Amino acid sequence: MPADTARVSSTAISLCANSNQRSGVYDRSVRFRALALDYDGTIARNGVLDGEVRRAIAEVRAAGIPVVIVTGRIVSDLRGVAGNLDFVDAVVGENGAVLSLSGNGRSEMLTAAASPALVGDLRAARVPVSVGQCVIESDAVFAPRLQESIQRVNAPYALTFNGTRVMALPSGVTKASGLTVALRALRLSPQDAIAIGDAENDYDLLEVAGLGVAVSWGIDALRARADEIIEGEGPGAVAAYIRRAAQSILILNPR
Question: Which end of the chain is more exposed for a tag (fewer CB within 10 A), N or C?
Answer without folding.
Answer: C
